[in-house]
Design a protein that fits this description.
There is one protein chain. By secondary structure, the chain is mostly helical. The chain is about 75% helix and about 0% strand. The chain has helices spanning about 5-25, 45-65, 65-70, 75-90, 95-130, 135-150, 155-165, 180-215, 225-240, 240-250. Helix 4 (about 75-90) packs parallel to helix 8 and helix 7 packs across helix 8 (about 180-215). It starts with a helix and ends with a helix.
Length: about 260
């Protein structure tokens, strides 16, 4: 390389070094950081106490939202049945848990949509418009929710919690307290989910028994029967359109 070429390279490198030094030496732009303050002061008016209680109640409801979604909706039955399907197919992580939970949430929304719409029309919207008080809104919201819970609850389970609570026999469904209806609904949902899961297990159990007896008759005792029966179970599930049948059965079980 000629002297002129080397000189040009040195000049370019020096210019880049000088520009880098100036950039580092320049003051960084100041980004304003917001300051969040939270203070607790003495209430000066009764209205301040009411607002504070409403905030505490709202935070409590938000913390209990997962339990409300799981135990007071159709989510319990749906997610248990879908878990039974995955176990019956002898699949550990297929479909993934996130997929099963997501499908369960959307099916829950589909099943609970009429109930939530009734709560919105009868309780939430009138409360937001200032037509009713908060207590009246809660009382109105309890009616369609309780109707859904009791419709899916077995009388035997409901009678159990009525007796344990030492309550007189309710004259009608409206007289059943919500704290009695919820646990009765949960155990009824679990029983229904296990009944559907047992029905799903039967055909796959037959395939496992046939494969195991065939391997034993051939003297292939060291070969795990699950490895041989898994493709046949998946094939059977695909041929009968298993997901369609399972989802259809779940939706029909709520109507």
């Amino acid at each position: 390389m000629s002297k002129a070429g080397r000189r040009g390279i040195f000049i370019l490198a020096g210019a880049l070094a000088l520009w880098t030094a100036q950039a580092l030496a320049a003051p960084a732009p100041v980004v304003p950081v917001p300051r969040i303050s939270f203070s607790i002061d003495a209430a000066a008016r009764p209205q301040d106490v009411a607002v504070s209680l409403q905030i505490i109640f709202l935070l409590t409801v938000l913390s209990l939202a997962p339990s409300i979604l799981v135990l007071m909706t159709a989510f319990t039955r749906i997610v248990v049945v879908l878990s039974f399907v995955r176990t019956a197919l002898s699949l550990q992580q297929i479909p993934p848990t996130q997929v099963l939970i997501g499908l369960s949430l959307f099916l829950t929304y589909f099943v609970m949509a009429p109930t939530w719409q009734a709560i919105n029309d009868q309780a939430l919207q009138p409360y937001l418009k200032g037509e009713i008080t908060q207590v009246e809104a809660l009382q109105r919201a309890e009616v369609p929710l309780k109707a859904f819970l009791l419709k899916e609850t077995r009388e035997k389970d409901l009678e159990l919690f009525v007796q344990m609570a030492r309550l007189p026999r309710p004259a009608n469904k409206e007289a059943v307290p919500l704290y009695v209806a919820i646990p009765a609904f949960v155990i009824s949902e679990l029983k229904t989910a296990f009944e559907i899961g047992f029905t799903i297990f039967l055909p796959f159990l037959v395939i496992d028994m046939i494969v195991a007896s065939t391997l034993m008759s051939m003297g292939m005792l060291m070969l795990p029967p699950v490895m041989i029966s898994l493709p046949f179970k998946i094939l059977l599930f695909v041929l009968v359109d298993g997901w369609h049948l399972v989802v259809r059965s779940l939706l029909l079980s709520f109507h």
